[in-house]
Amino acid sequence: MVVLSQPAVDSISFIKTVKKQATTHFTGIPVIDLFDPCAKTLIVEACQEFGFFKVVNHGVPMEVVSRLETEAVNFFKLSQAEKDKAGPPNPFGYGSKRIGPNGDVGWVEYLLFSSNPDLISQSSLLSFPRNPQVFWSLVNNYVSAVRNLACEVLEMIADELKIKPRNTFSRLLKDEKSDSCFRLNHYPPCPQLQALSGRNLIGFGEHTDPQVISVVRSNNTSGLQISLKDGTWVSVPPDQYSFFIHVDDSLQVMTNGRFRSVRHRVLADDSLKSRVSMIYFGGPPLSEKIAPLSSLMEEGEESLYKEFTWCEYKKSAYKTRLGENRLGLFEKTAGQ
Asked: Count of CB atoms within 10 A of residue 250's CB?
């Protein structure tokens, strides 16, 4: 069990809550063994139905995972004053409670990094309170491993959908100008606060991710929920040895809505257990044009989305609140 220090509870009143729910875990999450001969088909089916699935036999060394988690836990154990030396986020760095610039808040503290080493400034490393070069080395090793996993999944998707070339999706993440990022989230336990209201605090509010694909790993603490097609929220069983794959907005567009970008959220745990999660957001280069792939379109099928660059969509997405339909501005209306 990991028990970490809690962020200061001042101004907690502005963090949203939801009605306390039973902690029954949803058993219908697709679990895909990447060595399974049917894995490609199963991945595409999961992307269409859920926009979300778990992968096992993923090939990411657990030593790479555990070393970074240990260092992350050590960071979040520091005093608030020490952690604040790595912030405020602009957009990268340490942040607490405030998520983005548009008023969204949650019971969370985090570290956000660009996954491009060229964008990590020396000054930001020097402001990091504990062994900055060691920490960045661990982040880089982890990101490299999960990027490879994400690219493998994307190439399996291309194979199943008969998209040529095979790297149509994965090249976006492998490009040296890929606008990908990496986030470490810490959701402290808050039993006293939740006992007062009989409700669950929102750790991270409902949203979809704007990139191409996200790869999530967490410790063995509950909290992640996804929304099914009918709008029902279900709890995802934690699994510290596996990875969860999210379809993101850009992949939904490129498949012309065949895949669904999964809406998800995190609820704070009301026990004494902290949740630590690591998320790699695989994004394209800023100049990349995002549009439905013509090779996927059937005869007479119309594009559901206007073409846009990743830079245009990113700017638009980060002007909105978390829960808004970010793709709405880019959906085509009848006659367009």
From this structure: 26
Catalytic residues: 275
Quickly count helices (H) and strands (E) in the chain: 9, 15
Identify whether the C-beta of residue 288 lies closer than 8 Å to the C-beta of residue 180: no
Q: List, in sequence order, every residue forming a beta bridge with 266; answer none if it has no partner.
A: 204, 224
Q: Are 207 and 106 in contact (CB under 8 A)?
A: no
Please write the tens of the pLDDT for every residue from 309-327.
Answer: 999 999 999 899 988 999 9
Can you tell me the distance from the alpha carbon of 133 to that of 41, in angstroms, rounded to the nearest whole number? 41
Whether 320 contacts 217, CB under 8 Å: no
CA angle 67, 71, 77 (to 5 degrees): 145
Q: Return the residue matching tokens 């709890």.
A: 235
Cβ-based neighbours of 155, under 8 Å, separated by 6 or more: 166, 167, 169, 170
Token reading at 42: 């199963």
Tokens representing residue 175 in the block: 């490009």
What is the separation of C-alpha 22 from the centre of its chain, rounded to a whole number of angstroms? 24
Provide the whole-model pTM.
0.91
Residue type for position 321: R
CB distance 130 to 59 below 8 Å = no
Residue 39 confidence class, pLDDT cut points 50, 70, 90: very high
